[in-house]
Design brief:
The protein has 3 helices and 30 strands. Strand 12 and strand 13 form a beta hairpin. It has one domain: TolB, C-terminal domain (Neuraminidase). About 5% of the residues lie in helices and about 45% in strands. The chain has a 5-stranded antiparallel sheet with strand order 3-28-27-26-25, with helices on one face. A 5-stranded mixed sheet has the order 7-8-9-10-30, with no helix packed on it.
């Protein structure tokens, strides 16, 4: 892996990473690190800073790593058929081989292949995720594959049919508040026929459609009265104005429900998926669109042609005050698709353990108790 031509620490030599000149300085200034998942190559990447200020890049393998959330101490990750909870085992001020966070997988919930997408933690500490195969929100369960919590009003029953491609989840006050779906289809795989403009945002608390006409929307994140999200099929980061009640400021009638207007802010030069907000900035995950029916025929491609640009895979740091892309990190090689990205506040250089190497056998931490 490279950064401005210099080698970086990492486990894989089949991936090249380059960053804008001030990307590392921005991490230091914001006092944070980043974590992101890659979809088709099944990787969890952790981006921080080495002691000399160069980027630190660490990766581990988790089959079809997708949804990710974290607070600096705990990480949650959805994968092919499991949901994992990682805990940092280092005490404040402690380091391990120069890393100030060591995330160890402590608990795994076996869900089966439910195509779990976004994940979040509710006020009780329970993991809640977008169960895309069953078109619902679900929670992890000690006994069952999952515990269904809510389904959109247009979904007539739970079925393993990926009817509307419900994928994104935004929380408010420790409770699920908004979800994104690629359509309102109630038939098996019906969302694929509505990729260009069938996407919508749904208020979980009221069952109202608060935005529609979107193209394969992803990654809703609520901040104040703005619900930020990615209109992925059209290539834009933007927002919908929503009041605390869920009623949009800008209203139009649509299919018997109130629909808010999506305000595009920044064009993203890739299929946008994964969004983290931090201060005046948004970190957006970008992927190279696959050359198949799902990704062809979208307005994103027209937008790239109009701007004489090619799609990139990586992270774009958007200044929300101007809409400009202030910093970027591009990925070349085997990795072509990202799914999610999170900010790790107060973390300088994170690492994690996986199951492919022996470190997990030798890393043991003991809770305070008997001496």
């Amino acid at each position: 892996m490279t950064h401005e031509g210099q080698p970086l620490d990492a486990e894989s030599s089949a991936v090249a990473i380059t960053a804008s000149r001030q990307f590392a300085a921005w991490l230091a200034e914001q006092q944070l690190s980043l974590a992101f998942t890659t979809y088709q190559t099944g990787k969890l990447f952790l981006i921080g800073l080495q002691s000399d200020g160069r980027l630190s890049i660490f990766e581990r393998t988790f089959n079809r790593a997708m949804g990710l959330c974290g607070d600096g101490q705990t990480l949650w990750l959805t994968s092919l058929f499991q949901v994992w909870r990682f805990e940092n085992v280092l005490e404040p001020g402690q380091t391990h081989d120069g890393y100030d966070r060591l995330y160890v997988p402590r608990v795994g919930y076996t869900t089966g292949d439910v195509d779990a997408h976004d994940i979040a933690v509710d006020a009780s500490g329970r993991a809640v995720f977008a169960n895309t195969l069953f078109s619902c929100l679900a929670a992890v369960s000690e006994r069952y594959s999952f515990a269904p919590l809510w389904r959109p009003p247009f979904i007539s029953r739970l079925a393993a049919e990926d009817r509307c491609h419900l994928n994104g989840l935004a929380m408010q006050d420790g409770r699920p508040r908004f979800v994104t779906a690629c359509s309102r289809s109630d038939v098996a795989d019906g969302w694929r026929d509505r990729r260009r403009d069938g996407g919508c945002v749904i208020d979980v608390s009221t069952d109202e459609i608060v935005a529609e006409g979107l193209s394969m929307p992803h990654s809703p994140r609520l901040r104040g009265e703005k619900l930020w999200l990615l209109d992925s099929g059209k290539g834009f980061l933007g927002y919908v104005d929503v009041q605390a009640t869920g009623t949009p400021h800008s209203e139009t009638e649509g299919r018997g429900t109130k629909a808010g207007e999506f305000h595009p802010v920044t064009f993203c030069r890739g299929y946008a998926r994964g969004l983290a907000l931090c201060g005046d900035y948004a970190v957006v995950g970008l992927s190279k669109p696959r050359e198949n029916k799902t990704f062809t025929g979208l307005e994103l491609q027209d937008g790239l042609v109009q701007r004489d640009a090619e799609a990139r895979c990586g992270l774009a740091v958007v200044d929300l005050r101007s809409g400009d892309i202030a910093h970027w990190l591009w990925i070349d090689g085997l990795v072509a698709e990202l799914y999610d990205v999170v900010v790790l506040p107060g973390v300088r250089r994170p690492m994690a353990l996986g199951f492919k190497t022996d470190e997990i056998r030798r890393t043991i931490s003991v809770a305070p108790g008997l001496a």
